[in-house]
Amino acid sequence: MRKVITYTLLIVFSLLFIAPLFWAVTTALKSPQELYLFPPKWIPSEWKFSNFAEAWNIQPFNLFLKNTVTVTALSTLGQLISCTLVAYGFARFQFKGRDFLFLIVLATMMIPWEVTMIPQYMEFNYLGWINTLKPLIVPSWFGSAYYIFLLRQFILTLPRELDEAATIDGASKLTVLFRIIVPLMGPSLILVGVFQVMSCWNDYLGPLIFLNDQTKYTLTLGLSQFKGMYGVDMQSIMAITCLISIPPLAIFFFAQRYIVGGIATTGIKG
Amino acid sequence: MKKRISLIVLATTMMVSVLSACGGSGGSTDTAGQGESGSNGTKTLRFATWDTGDTLKIEQDIAKKFEAEHPGTKVQVEAYADGFDQKMAAGFGAGNPPDVMYMWDFPTYHQSLEPLDSFAEKDKDLNIDDFYKGLFNYGKIDGKLYGIPAGFTTRVVYYNKKLFDTAGIPYPKDGWTWSEFQDIAQKLTDKSKKQYGFGVRAENDTYDLQGLVWSNGGSFISPDGKTIDGYMNSKETAESIQMFGDMVKNGSAVLTGGKGQQSGDDIFKAGKIAMWESGIWPLESFKKAGIDVGTVEMPAFPGKPLKGVLAESALSIAKDSKQKDLAWEFIKFYVSDESIKMRVADLPVRQSVVTELKKDQDPLYKPYYTMLERSDNTPAFLLNPKWNEVNRQLSAAVEAVMHGSNAQDVLNQAVKDSERYMK
Amino acid sequence: MAQTYLQNTREQTAALKLLRKRRWGGAAPYLFIFPWIFGFVVFTLGPLLFSLIISFFDWPIVGKVTFIGIDNYVEMFTDDPMFWKSLSVTLKFAVLFVPLNIVLALALAMLLNQKVRGSAIFRTAFYLPSVISGVALAMIWSWVYSGEYGILNYFLSLFGIQGPDWLNDTKWSLVAMVIASLWGQGSMMLIFLAGLKGIPKDLYESASIDGAGKIRQFFSVTIPMITPTILFNLITSIIAAFQQLTLALLLTGGGPMKSTYFYAMYMYENAFKYYKMGYSAANAWFMFLIVLVLTFLVFKSSEAWVFYEGEMKKNPQKKLKARKGGQTG
């Protein structure tokens, strides 16, 4: 009985979460005459797979893909390294001003970008980074509050005795971090990786503000090219959305079992 | 342990030096280099547009053509689509705007734009007289010209021929009135089929409503731009806006979504509204959706002259641009016969092109041009520098009318709330 | 487990004490957090101070900049109905969204934490909305919510229910926004799931030996063990609620009748629609302070209810102490 309820709930919620995407896929496949019908036509009478290729080729999406992959890969790598170091520093040491500094870390999450956007633009302009991918990559190498906070919370749940024992054995702090803590953090690091990939992949404002030349554009900027001031090409938006959702979805699919499989097996037995 | 710590120090110093290296080298070449001649002698001209899709594609083609005719020049088309306003704010705010850009909001930006009078006067190639009269007024602030018209649209009524045929109602003709319009809307409404005669926007751009208001002899602001009391809340103004509200109330019009929602365009494409009022923008997509669409002039109020409102896009040059002459060349090229003919999605701004393409003979396009002849009033935002603030109140009032409030009451209130911006 | 370490290393207790002392002082911690400090100073602090400074200026995007002292702040509090309106919309949204978001994410995570076949598929399905970019998301919701022609009301009509015109009805629009925001709970669910998986199985075993039923186990084992995760999700939810902008911007534009005019949207419009950069910065600093105070309160309170296994001694929770005692003893 319990199983039945569990499965029913799982399926119902899955449908709730999938249905709109299903609608996006069918919208992408419809012929223009069927797009706006009401009641909605769930299954197109003609499957126009060519819509995908057409939308993809209107703008140089291959190039956008390359840019997006570059930004996502480099910034994710940067976040993982920097946030691990910083989170460890906050979680495992007591030092003067720690709580105050951590509050500032948290505070940076609350800064609305509306106000920092223009000064930041000025700064990057001064550095000559406007219209390059650098503003989208370099700051990631210095940590981001959300991930630092997340990783700190994870490290705090690890028994302190683990690293203390290692320290007694003469290991340095950095060794403790990489030999003891990081292996235990596996799942949370993958979690951070996944989050960073998602947010980077779908970031719109950063690329919009800091990039000018189309050859530097990312996928979301390409996607927004279908949404003008005076009209929206819904079909192309849906087609491109479906296509560009595939890589992050695949990444998630492969990553999720490490996220949930993780601590229980590695952490506790270790 | 000491060794490890020194490793961290090393790593961080490396990061710092990489960072500063990026900054140092970039600072001198990238920004300053943009626009001025690079090492290989090519000049890059930055051109920002809000257009998307096929229109953007055409603009890119025009840019390529310009490059071909001007060796050593690269036109960097920067397509910001929906993010155009933000991008302009960042660019102008930080002193790094594009050289040439699409522009409509002259009251806000004119201080950062290059006056174009001297360019236009000394350049006979531009052939100003060939432009439709009145288009230039929209790009003028305090008598100075800041933008060259590149495209425009007036507003017309679209109708779905199939729905008219099914109901046995003759197609509307130019010179019709709002009472005829309301009659037809009533007849074409069939709630059981979720079909409506007309669609009313829940959130109107008050700019677009001006044609309606002027046609009833009203206006939002006095001609000198100093007074709104007695204009924005005049009987005529209230009446014309109330009419849309009433149509929603009596069920002959459906309320269509605000900004990002399923729009009237979409519902028209679904064949669920018989008549829809808009500019040229959705015409192509109506055809593509398989709607047999007709266009007709806006209806008039009985005994009063019909007025239209013009939405214009112009090209401007940034004051900070380092290559204004090249920018001017590009603008000139952009509004030349050749380019205008390429830009099929816009309405041509040159009379010669219209005559040549016989656009004013085409029944589908003719109403835009007859409406153009009726668009000689000056829109409110050009009359008062604080219009942005006043409009905040006005928009809220108009929205309230569409949701059932009494137009006269809310407009009186809006005038009261706006008075402080009028001093 | 940690306890085994303790038992094996009883003789090292003295050394441990020494070590705990050494946690204080030394340059090591500063070196670890150095990347963040550097990034903060270079990329955040400057722009932040700049925004503080311009909040005392009349700063149009183009044109003359004038120092006006605290006038922006005065205007905001005394002479701008939209300020109060948007603040109340955001507070309403936060009050609805934050608890619902946490409860839903936790419930879904617990659902996924069951042993079921195809769990990978279900997890991916639940996370799916988080993968879709904002532009498309808003468009999808507009089709779901449309009054006459919407998918949601179409479904409701199949059951004979006449749904409201969600986004054009001031009574429903904010609710609709909350639902749409909840739909993207994927990240939070995932964090909870990772937290749930981190709870050692033996805790449940010993709890059930003690005679605790499922519900008691939930409150005496599950909840205490994931309090660090709850703290994280609570704080990030509050921040997210206050920064909610994308949906309003892309879907309702703040309407109808300003019923979804979030504070973030108000700030955004002041900056990019009315080009009052200084005023917008003043708005932002006010919001910044509110969120900061809220976070600070939550954080301070967390010492009383958040349990970190790594910092056991600081925690006064009786239940947990009892559990620990039961286990080691």
UniProtKB/TrEMBL annotation, chain A:
InterPro entries: MetI-like, MetI-like_sf. It is found in: Cell membrane. The chain crosses the membrane at residues 69-88, 100-118, 138-155, 176-198, 236-255. Residues 65-255 form the ABC transmembrane type-1 domain. One of its GO terms (cellular component) is plasma membrane. Keywords: Cell membrane, Membrane, Transmembrane, Transmembrane helix, Transport. It holds the Pfam family BPD_transp_1. Its main location: membrane. Coiled coil: none annotated. Signal peptide: none annotated. It is a multi-pass membrane protein. Belongs to the binding-protein-dependent transport system permease family. This is Carbohydrate ABC transporter permease. The lineage of its organism: Bacteria, Bacillati, Bacillota, Bacilli, Bacillales.
UniProtKB/TrEMBL annotation, chain B:
It comes from the Bacteria. One of its GO terms (cellular component) is ATP-binding cassette (ABC) transporter complex, substrate-binding subunit-containing. InterPro entries: SBP. Keywords: Signal, Transport. Residues 1-21 form the signal peptide. GO terms for biological process: maltodextrin transmembrane transport; maltose transport. Gene3D superfamilies: Periplasmic binding protein-like II. The keyword Transport applies. Belongs to the bacterial solute-binding protein 1 family. This is Sugar ABC transporter substrate-binding protein. It comes from Paenibacillus mangrovi. The lineage of its organism: Bacteria, Bacillati, Bacillota, Bacilli, Bacillales.
UniProtKB/TrEMBL annotation, chain C:
InterPro entries: ABC_transporter_permease (IPR051393), MetI-like (IPR000515), MetI-like_sf (IPR035906). GO terms for biological process: transmembrane transport. GO terms for cellular component: plasma membrane. It is a multi-pass membrane protein. Residues 87-298 form the ABC transmembrane type-1 domain. CDD domains: TM_PBP2. It is found in: Cell membrane. Keywords: Cell membrane, Membrane, Transmembrane, Transmembrane helix, Transport. The chain crosses the membrane at residues 30-57, 91-112, 124-144, 174-196, 217-242, 248-268, 280-299. The keyword Signal does not apply. It comes from the Bacteria. Belongs to the binding-protein-dependent transport system permease family. PANTHER family: ABC TRANSPORTER PERMEASE PROTEIN (PTHR30193), ABC TRANSPORTER PERMEASE PROTEIN YESP-RELATED (PTHR30193:SF1). This is Sugar ABC transporter permease. The lineage of its organism: Bacteria, Bacillati, Bacillota, Bacilli, Bacillales.
